[in-house]
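seq as requested:
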Amino acid sequence: MKHQFHASLFSGFVLFSLTTSASAEAMKGFYIGGGGASIMQRSQANNFTAAGNYISTITREANYPLVTFHVGYTAPLGNDWFVGAIVNTNYLLSKDLIGGAVVTTINNSWAHNARIRFGYSLTERFSISGSAGVAWTESKFTRTAGGISDTAHAFRTGGVVGAHLNYRLSEKWSATASVNHFIFPEERIEFPNANFFQMSKAETTSLALTFSYHFGN
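struct tokens:
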């Protein structure tokens, strides 16, 4: 039997620009926002019998859209530097379906990440930053063969790094373009009523455009 593990990730993620010490002082504090992203994922699953005998390897590449929501906090570090933290929640707008003699539906609608970030203001409106942190998601696999269904759940944790370009639209609003890369290490996936298991891993790159509203002091 063949089955692929897919961990949806996500990345929509917002940072905002801090330029001079006066602007940084005015813009520091909490912010919220959201946006959209496209994720490009490569995953690999090694299939084994219940006794541990190797069956096959499946490698799959797929693209998915998502919407993202976030809340964060930023503090200035002098005139041009800033540091902050952000928590991001993503909703995947697609489900993965693998057909054939065995039909597998992979439902992993929600994914999350939490990061620290560090950035530098290039001009009064533009800034760049980098981020790093942890990501987590839960996936549900429903496998149907011969009219019989079997379900497996997997809670995955991994790491994420990102690079971000921010444009300050106004005193309270900003827009950010982001590139993020997620790595989920190999993990064992068990089907309770099947005679096989998987060792699966995944990497995802996301391109995101997001908007943020800043509450200030």
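The chain has a mean pLDDT of 78.
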